[in-house]
Specification:
With 573 residues, the protein is α/β, with parallel strands linked by helices. Helices cover 34% and strands 20% of the residues. The strands form 7 sheets. It has a 7-stranded mixed sheet, with helices on both faces. Strands 12-11-10-13-14 form a 5-stranded parallel sheet, with helices on both faces. Mean pLDDT is 90; it is low at 1-58.
């Protein structure tokens, strides 16, 4: 998904600089671990999950989890997860994690120490030989249990996302579901990993099959705390790899719950490990030679850095980056359906989706629809994610809010029309949250800052063209190629658009055309590092986490009694 800020903007600036602690963001503080550790603390969500004598205990359970944004009086530190154990970090640098609806501290996330980072890879490396040798059917049984547990803890996972990331509870459940679908598809591995064999000559056959890479890593973004880890863990693990996961330092709770569930499902110690931090942890993952592949979702700046540097070290990298997803609205489209679809796709998840519909191209007379679209957007209820009927939650941080507001202001300054202004709106119950209501900017041109930059918030920019050909040319000229949509009732128009558009994922009367996991997430251009050669889940995902071995064998019947060697060039005929 793109620009999901797995690393904050300020942290991104430090990626190539390897800064001193003084250069880290102000939300990162240096402090000793909480006295007494977290084994005896009562935690609202995930951080005190402890592994003691084969018993996993946590303050939240499948039926007991947060359902409000009430302040947590004594936030407890998030732990590392290494060798199937939740372990208190010895970190001296901690990152305060705030509930976006209130900006109250929820937990503190460690910058895992050098020893902890190495311990996670040591655990994964130690576990790999036995896990690789575990039969596919045995791995499949573990995955079945993992899927069942995710379903049992679905609401708990969603609550974690709402509290830490800010999504509405209903939207957070969708986050979990789209990851769960990847895990469910991975259960069919027995039909996905079959090799090929051909008798290429008399008594000679060549066979090819896939083998795991070894230790692999996932660097995950803030905007899909459950879905993105589940894009990696099921496929990487069931194909025989061991995994080191770095969740976003902004919302690691869902991943910590998934780690607990993985243990209960039967994943052996070391198969899944979780470490934390910002730029230092990213650089460790890149530089650690035992990590063979990296899966990343996030911004272009971070993703291009990771792809370039890790590829130079011989690692495989799949990296989904930024986006500017367009929808072309044709005059013949079903107006009611199109306007409803656009409003939902533009403002759901506060616009913090890599496939959010951030740009509308009104074709011909449809440019007059902007005011009606604004009326639909006004009906969207902005509130805390746990509140009944909430449609739109806060953005992730005050910094994100400031950036979005600056881009709205730039549009106004550059001559665009603010049809609906979401600045300055705040739910009465949550005055301190990071709130921006739905915003619609009309009469935008492609040279404006609000069009050229990814806004990553509940802001929809609207451009006007006269013809379908102009719409296609405009969209294709954009540097991103994640997703695109067209709204029309004409089959020929849809077919022309589908054939000539360059974006990797196309929706016809579908505003967010994210493929289900039997296919693959196929963005292109600057939305995927490396030109789209390594995409997520589906067959390409399986190929990314495995390598092909080809074996040619000869068992000649004549050799049973032949006593003379043959020195001629083998022709395999």
């Amino acid at each position: 998904m793109a620009a999901r800020r797995a690393i904050s903007r300020r942290t991104l600036q430090s990626l190539t600089l390897r800064p001193s602690i003084a250069a880290l963001p102000s939300r990162i503080t240096r402090m000793p671990p909480v006295a007494g550790g977290s084994h005896t603390a009562v935690r609202r969500l995930h951080a005190t999950t402890s592994y003691l004598a084969s018993t996993s205990t946590a303050a939240s359970t499948a039926t007991n989890y947060p359902t409000t944004h009430e302040k947590i009086e004594q936030p407890v530190n998030t732990q590392n997860f290494i060798d199937n154990k939740f372990i208190d970090s010895d970190a001296t640098t901690w990152i305060d994690l705030h509930d976006p609806a209130t900006n109250n501290v929820v937990t503190r996330v460690p910058q895992s120490t050098d020893a902890e980072l190495l311990a996670a890879v040591d655990s994964a490396e130690k576990a790999f030989p036995a896990w690789r040798a575990t039969s596919l059917l045995a791995k499949q049984q573990i995955m079945f249990k993992f899927v069942t547990l995710i379903r049992e803890h679905w609401d708990r996972l969603a609550a974690s996302i709402t509290l830490e990331q800010g999504k509405t509870f209903a939207d957070a459940k969708g986050d979990v579901l789209r990851g769960l679908q990847v895990a469910e598809t991975a259960c069919g591995i027995t039909t996905q990993m079959t090799g090929e064999v051909l008798e290429v000559a008399k008594d000679m056959e060549t066979r090819s099959y896939r083998e795991p890479l070894g230790v692999v890593a996932a660097i995950c973004p803030f905007n899909f705390p459950a879905m993105i880890p589940l894009w990696t863990i099921p496929i990487a693990a069931i194909t025989g790899n061991t995994v080191v996961v770095k969740p976003s330092e902004r919302d690691p709770g869902a991943m910590m719950i998934l780690a607990e569930l993985a243990t209960k499902a039967g994943f052996p110690p070391g198969v899944i490990n979780v470490i934390h931090g910002a730029a230092k942890t990213v650089d460790f993952i890149i530089d650690e030679p035992r990590i063979k592949a990296i899966s990343f979702v996030g911004s272009n700046k971070a993703g291009e850095y990771i792809y370039t540097r890790a590829s130079a070290l011989g690692k495989r990298v799949q990296a989904n980056l930024g986006a500017k997803n367009h929808a072309a609205i044709m005059p013949d489209s079903n107006k009611n359906q199109a306007l409803n679809a656009i409003a939902g796709a533009a403002f759901g998840a506060a616009g913090q989706r890599c496939m959010a519909l951030s740009t509308v191209v009104f074709v011909g007379e449809t440019k007059g629809w902007a005011d009606e679209l604004a009326q639909r957007a006004k009906e969207i209820k902005m509130d805390g994610g746990f509140e009944e009927g909430a449609d739109l939650g806060p953005v992730i941080s005050p910094q994100a809010k400031d950036k979005i507001e600056q881009l709205i202001a730039s549009a106004e300054k550059e001559g665009a029309t603010i049809v609906l202004d979401g600045r300055g709106k705040t739910p009465a119950k949550y005055p301190n949250g990071n709130w921006i209501a739905p915003t619609i900017i009309a009469n935008v041109t492609k040279d404006m800052t609000c069009y050229k930059e990814e806004i990553f918030g509940p802001v929809l920019v609207c451009l006007n063209v006269d013809t379908l050909d102009e719409a296609i040319d405009l969209i294709n000229a954009n540097e991103y190629g994640n997703g695109v949509a067209i709204f029309t009732t004409s089959g020929p128009i849809a077919a022309k658009f589908q054939k000539n558009i360059e974006a990797g994922q196309v929706g016809i009367n579908v505003p967010i055309p994210v493929p289900l996991p039997m296919f693959s997430f196929t963005g292109n251009k600057k939305s995927i590092a490396g030109g789209g050669t390594s995409t997520f889940y589906g067959k390409p995902g399986l190929q990314f986490f495995t390598q092909v071995k080809t074996v040619t064998s000869l068992w000649r019947s004549e050799d049973a009694g032949e006593t003379r060697a043959t020195v001629n060039m083998p022709t395999q005929s």
